[in-house]
Structures are given as structure tokens and as C-alpha cells.
Amino acid sequence: MGLQKNVLAVIMGGGRGTRLHPLTMERCKPAVPLAGKYRLVDIPISNCINSEINRVFLLTQFNTASLHRHIQGTYHFDPFGGGFVDILSAEQTEKSADWYQGTADAVRRNLIHFKKFPHDLVLILSGDQLYKMDFREIVESHIAKGADVTMAAVPFPVSKVEGLGLMKVDDVLAITEFAEKPKDPAVIESLTLSDEVEAKLESKDGEKHCLASMGIYVFNREALIEALDNTMTDFGKEVIPSLLGRKKLCAHIFEGYWEDIGTVKAFFEANLALAQPLPPFNFFDPNAPIYTEDRYLPASKLNKCSVDHAVIGDGSILINSSFKHCVFGMRSFVDQGSVLEDVVLMGSDFYETKQQLAANTEAGQPHLGVGKNCQIKGAIIDKNARIGDGCVLNATDKLDGRYAEGAIIVRDGVLVVPKGAIIPAGTVV
């Protein structure tokens, strides 16, 4: 059977997304905007489509309205291929009336939906990572090794493995040990790669490596059902360790770019990295495009602007201002005389009409976007935010907390203007 008929993909939509707050105040993690025009969820879905896997389930439960609109407006498959992207939110049943309790619990509750479709393998993916992977390779490796479970793994230098699930493998990449986020240096040292496996890595930085779990799994259908025939709630903490010695677990080494966008700082840095001339993640690869909703917006307009490394989304209007190392989402607006450096401006969901502009002006409400003569540095400005004229917003040396009467939040050293926030003219943070 081809992959389209043999593999089901399951994307974990995440929980409340507390580490990404306030970007997840009104949306779930997979719906968070990325790179000017995309959403986080577009990454795993596009990887699936590019890998000839077109049956995708998306498991989520918090603030799903934005995600539903995006999925319904983006992913349409012809009736002949049998493809779909189906959102499965937590639901009350005869057996359960509460929320998903973890990744494993979410998959367990939806096995009843999966069994309606013919498949031998289940590919489980995270919804908040930035990477480009051909899943055909991990599936082929899984089948060739006769594995029950295959885990995608990234080699990390020992000095950078804090907070990651680590595995020990033998010389044929069978997993012999697994530890979820170990802190003991002795434990980490015991999980380093053997010289034989180390020699096969492309990375030659002179430091010993460990294999870190990417949260990407290939399960045989029956192995998944058996692994979830219990009350365990999490794959990394419980399910995978419980299978050691009982099932054949193998690793698939991935040495491409991979970033877990689980925190505000990680999200901020991953976006700004895309403004570099040769970013670590390539959205311009014609052989592996990243798909998203086609919004039929006009081309962006820049009037007398100074631009030093920027990504500019469709439909933006930027007037006589200076930008350095910035990412602008769709329908972004910046008025004259403003200076932005290291800023992710997510843009707006709509354009204001003349009547709305007149009413807002009369009410003293700023224009959508950034007003005149503003200075903003080290910030994320979420969608539909309004920054009045003459505001100075700078995250440098600011402690995490709330500022400007609670309207602005500094998180992980990044200044965040939440979605729909109104920042009065002359505000200084």
C-alpha cells in the first residue's frame, strides 16, 4: 500500500499553551501566526502533504475557533485521493467528560475515529515545531528495521540538552534507554552516543552528542493500541519508557533545522531569524512548499522606507519609516517617522473603512498597527493591536511582568502587545 492508504498522521494541537501566553490568549498554539503569512500548524501539515501523506487528524481543545477557520479555508482535497485535515476537539462521551489529560490520552480517546480508515501505521507529530522533514524516510526506516515504534531524534551537544527527552541507542539505532528531561549530569553522560554512531553524524563540532526526541513517532497500528491500553497520559514521560524491553523501539536521526517553538522567546527568535539573507528555515524551497490560506491580498506598499532585513506580508502599508530586522504580517500598517528594530508585527485581520477610520479618530482611538513617530525595539505586536503616535516601547533591561497599566506584557525578555490591545499615544515602556 502507498503512504496515502497506509499511514494516518496525527498532529498534537497542544494544551493551554501557557508558555506562549499571551500569544495564546485567544487562540491555540497551532493557530499562532508565523513568518508573516503562515500559522504554526501549516508546518506539520505541509510536511505531511510533501511526504504524500494526505490523511491528517489535528487534536486540540483550547481556543479552537481561529484554528477551525484557518483549516477550513486552507486545506481542500479532491475527492479521488481521499485526503483530509480533520480537527478532533476534546468531547464528552459515555466514557469521559473531561479534557485531554496529555498527549497519550488525546490519542487514546480518538482511536475510535482512526479505526474507520484503513492504515497500518500512525505518524504522531507536534503542532508547535519549525522544521522540514520528508516523513517517507522515517516510515521507510521503521519498516526496514521491523520496528514497533520509531522516534525521530535530533543530535544535540551535551551542553545543550537541558529540558529535552534523551535516548540511548545501540550501533543499529535500537533504543535501549530513555529519560524524559534528565538533569543529573551522570545520567546525561550515560546517554551520550557511542563512537560508532557519533562518527556517522554530519555535525562535527568536537563535542559529544545525545539524541533528543523530537516528539515525532511512528507506531505500528497494533503497537499503538496496546501501548494505550492503560491510563498513561503522556508519551514522553510514561508510554515510551513503558515500552522499553517489551517492544522494538528504534531511532531515526534527523540532522536538519529543528526548532521547538514552545516559548515566547523561541517564537520571537525563530521569526526574526527568517529575516536573514540565508535563514535556517527555507520557505523558498520549490520542492517542499509550505502551504497556507490564499487570501488574495494586494501587494505591499513601502513609501520612502529604510529597510534592513525584513519579511513583509501581503497587503502591508509602510510609510516613511525605518525598519531593521523585522517581520511584518499581512495588512501591517506603520505610519511615518517610526523606527522599528527586532520587531514581529503580526498585522491585522481586516482593513478599516473610511467610516471606521473617521469614527475611531473622533473617539481618539489609534489606527490599526503602529502610529507616527514611534520607537519600538525587541517586541511582538499581535494582530489587530493599535499603537498610538509617539509611543516608545523597548524590552531592553525590562523584567518580566505587566506594564502600561497591564496593557503590555514582557515575557522571556520580549515585549508583547497582546491581540487587539490599544496603546494610547505617548506611552513609554
What does this structure look like?
- Helix content is 21%, strand content 30%.
- It is α/β, with parallel strands linked by helices.
- It has 2 domains: 3-273, Spore Coat Polysaccharide Biosynthesis Protein SpsA, Chain A; 301-423, UDP N-Acetylglucosamine Acyltransferase, domain 1, CATH 2.160.10.10.
- Strands 1, 4, 5, 6, 8, 9, 10, 11 and 12 form a 9-stranded mixed sheet that branches.
- A hairpin with a 3-residue loop joins strand 2 (33-34) and strand 3 (38-39).
- The protein is globular, with a radius of gyration of 23 Å.
- The termini are far apart.
Task: Compile the SSE list and pairings.
Elements lengths: L2 H4 E6 L20 E2 L3 E2 L2 H9 L4 E6 L4 H10 L9 E6 L13 H12 L6 E6 L2 E3 L3 H10 L4 E9 L7 E5 L5 E6 L4 H6 L4 H4 L10 E12 H7 L7 H9 L5 E5 L4 E3 L3 H10 L27 E3 L2 E7 L4 E3 L2 E7 L4 E2 L4 E7 L8 H9 L6 E2 L4 E7 L4 E2 L4 E3 L6 E3 L4 E4 L2 E4 L4 E2 L6
Parallel strand pairs: 1-4, 1-6, 4-5, 8-12, 14-16, 15-17, 16-18, 17-19, 19-21, 20-22, 21-23, 21-26, 22-27
Antiparallel strand pairs: 2-3, 6-11, 7-13, 8-11, 9-10, 9-11, 24-25, 25-26
CATH topology of the largest domain: Spore Coat Polysaccharide Biosynthesis Protein SpsA, Chain A
CATH homology superfamily name of the largest domain: Spore Coat Polysaccharide Biosynthesis Protein SpsA, Chain A
Major sheet: size, sense and barrel closure?
9 strands, mixed
Assess the beta-strand content as a share of residues: 25-35%
Q: Number of domains in the coordinates?
A: 2
Per DSSP E runs of 2 or more residues, the count of β-strands stands at 27
Overall geometric form: globular
CATH architecture of the largest domain: Alpha-Beta Complex
